[in-house]
User: Fold this.
Amino acid sequence: PPVGENSTKSLKNLFNEEKTPPAIRGQLPLLESDGKIAWISGIGVSEHFRVNESTQNVLYIEVNVGGFLND
Assistant:
């Protein structure tokens, strides 16, 4: 779930809620870790992967892809 949400939902439901056009859904960059989606371009980071007080390591990734929304 995006930051602030504590539920799990399908990508289809998330894209519908975020009003992501179906034509670009398959083209959006995303990061996955151990079968869980950590981040989706234009939507943000998952609550499960956000930085908090117990975070010990942080991975910084910069995405520069023309035509996509970057977080």
Remarks:
- The helical segments are 11-17, 22-25.
- The beta strands are 30-33, 36-40, 44-45.
- Residues 17 and 41 are 15 Å apart (CA to CA).
- DSSP finds two helices and three strands in the chain.
